[in-house]
Amino acid sequence: MSDAVDAFAAGVDFPLDPFQIEGCEAIAAGHGVLVAAPTGAGKTIVGEFAVHLALQRGQKAFYTTPIKALSNQKYHELAARHGHAQVGLLTGDTSINGEAPVVVMTTEVLRNMIYAGSSTLEGLGFVVMDEVHYLADRFRGAVWEEVIIHLAPSVQLVSLSATVSNAEEFGDWLDEVRGGNVVVVSEERPVPLWQHMQVGKEVYDIFVDGATPSDEADRWRVNPLLMDAVRSASRSGEDGPARGRGGRDRDRRGRGGRPQGGARQRFGGGASRTEVITQLDREGLLPAITFIFSRVGCEGAVGQLLGNDVRLISAAEGERNRRTLEERSAVLEGEDLTVLGYHQLLAGLERGYAPHHAGMLPIFREVVEELFTAGRVKAVFATETLALGINMPARTVVLEKLVKFNGEAHVEITPAEYTQLTGRAGRRGIDVEGHAVVVWSRGMDPLSVAGLASTRTYPLRSSFAPTYNMAVNLVATVGRQTAREILESSFAQFQADRAVVGLASKVRSQQESLEGYAEAMHCELGDFREYAQIRHRISDLEKSGRKQRSATRRAETAVSLDSLETGDIIRIGGRRSGLAVVVIPARPYKGQSGEPMVLTEHKQVRRLTTSDLDGPVTPFGKLAVPRSFNPRSARHRTDLATTLRVKAPHEGAPSIRREAKEAAGGEDARLVRLRQELRAHPCHACPDREEHARWSERWWRLKREQSALQRTVDSRTGSVAARFDRVVSVLVDLGYLDEGGDAVSADGARLRRLYSEKDLLAAECLRAGTWKQLTPAELAAAVSMLVYEPRRDDADLMPRIPTDGLAIAWEDMQERWRDIEAREHTAGLDPTDPPDAGIAWQVHRWASGRRLDEVLLDSDLTAGDFVRRCKQIVDLLDQIAKASEEDRLRSTARKAIDAVMRGVVAADRID
């Protein structure tokens, strides 16, 4: 080892692994480095060496992380090692010693520094990008690429990534844009991981030899005793034969106990949470993290263990945990602790288990993390967010299900997600081995689980796309042409260009096949390709006719929706077919969306869109809707639905089935002519016509594939720069850039300071003075509309707007969003998501000084979600205060920050 690496290694408590030494040596030699290694392998050691080297050389080092919790943890670790005077912390709401030689920060903070030309960047020698694989994140990933591309060439970049199958490709890109980059890949876990499945009360090895097979040929060597147990449990409804791991009387690794008897059949055939945890406790496999893809499920698991009086720690240890939570929660004095989930959390901590999810208060999550890491909590029930966050390893990881909700649908977890989750198992320096346990339930296939556990292909894919803020910052700093060239050097374009090489080769290969098919369909009587073309034109016209009739029908449906009035009675089809009455027509009201709102005879209030209908709707009756009707009131809905069923006329009501059958119009004259041409063509009389036609069909199918591939090649060439041009066209149109898109206007200078996902909408509101008359509480609520993003189907159809002044601002924000959306549609860009007032009422109450329990009353919003949203609101308010040129709005924004940043929101700071 070199002297620099040797001196660093002397201060580490354990001998460095070969990949750590290789990474450190590359840095010492002046190179950038990409280190890809499994979770828990110790890749952060390479980043810490860069920090060590910066201090030795009198340079600065920035250590970036994707989330605040990880930044806080890294700050504590580095401050403990180098002293608080040497280490600073910068996150969205925390600034500690920001000019220190070593600063830990979230990646967005560094990106903003680069665009602002901050003086803090002077003397910067190293940037460590922890969890750099976050650049695949579709919401935030672009930030990582922006930093990598724009960092000064003199800065050495240390990129730390989870194991990905295309690390070399990513490394090649880093070498191209930064120069002198070394790739270090390690696939070896420092603590071996054993894969198991629990069937009933028994735990079986998934693979014959227990460990995850490293040889591709061995990947399907699934334990036959596990297969027998699953077949037995599935067939008989029992929990499987009473054998230990792998069916052995005594586990050959010395961990097994005496076999337990079978358990009664449970719902889904799986073991209960209590059975899983008590079994792990008996076998000495705690501490454990159980991943449950549901916040309610995490809380429910703790409730089940409490209900069964499970205790995993001593009473004395439990009392210590109680005192810790009470001390850390002192800031919550006066809040309704029951609403915050305090009492169940306390009861669980006293017994050695707890939940962990984003819906909890940050204070509570931090206590759970601290106690679990210290070994004072033995079981944590967590959502998958824990796998992406702080260093919180366990001996065992349990997966209850292999299906999760991704925001749109329930989908199976990917091999990469499985590896990320189970990577927490096995603590370096503590455990000899780690364990991953999948809890079997009916319908779960052990072969599929084995495939997940043994798959090693999970490539890193760029999610980079130019944004409005990025565009104005690039044009302002380097000009439009250079900006295009910079964007063409992104990892997204790098991957697209590499893919084009393979696609172009496939296009050439298909051309050879096309020539062979053309020869096979040759006809002596005439040009069969011409004959086949007529056949295809007939087929295409028939299809386009159906599409045209469908498009016309959709347009007619949209017009019919716009024509509906309050009280109109209609019949709708689909899964919830039946009668409905219009309660709000299709006209924007207080900023609401344009679709009409109806109440069905089944008491459901819903927005009616063209996708809900098979065709135009025609009112066939009228019903008086009381002016006092409140769609939120179950009693009001019941009363009106009952009246609808009683008073709706039955004679003359349209039939959904009859309307659906009214489809086609007359036949196109072109079709008649083409069919005549087909019958008159010489090849029509060929005795081998159908044989030629089969080869012709292959030719046409391949020709379509080739044309589609060629279009893909054309679209991917320069695709990132082309999107940049479309973004620029919108900015020019709105006056944020000059006519040529080469210079930033005064409005564009404001946009440069706004980093929200709805950056352009925020800039438009600033320019129009949408918020200038608002109070601090109203401004906080208005900004929440740019921050809040409801889960799918959770959007509030009629959000409560607390004041008339805010209602006016809300209407104006909606109008400006519609204008932006129209321009994006014209430019061929994906539309900006609309503002959402789903939490405006709660934010207004909080900023007005109300207690948290009052704010969350009658709301589905959890305390943790509310606090997280408040932090995002404060961050955007700070950007608005800096971007605005109006003294009053700047002052209001500062007051709004103070009004929001209090109590539990302010408590989530560094200790």
From TrEMBL:
Residues 24-182 form the Helicase ATP-binding domain. GO terms for cellular component: Ski complex. InterPro entries: DEAD/DEAH_box_helicase_dom, Helicase_ATP-bd, Helicase_C-like, P-loop_NTPase, RNA-DNA_Helicase, SH3_HelY, Ski2/MTR4_C. Residues 272-476 form the Helicase C-terminal domain. Keywords: ATP-binding, Helicase, Hydrolase, Nucleotide-binding. Residues 231-273 are annotated as: Disordered. One of its GO terms (biological process) is nuclear-transcribed mRNA catabolic process, 3'-5' exonucleolytic nonsense-mediated decay. Pfam families: DEAD (PF00270), DSHCT (PF08148), Helicase_C (PF00271), SH3_HelY (PF26090). This is DEAD/DEAH box helicase. It comes from Janibacter melonis.
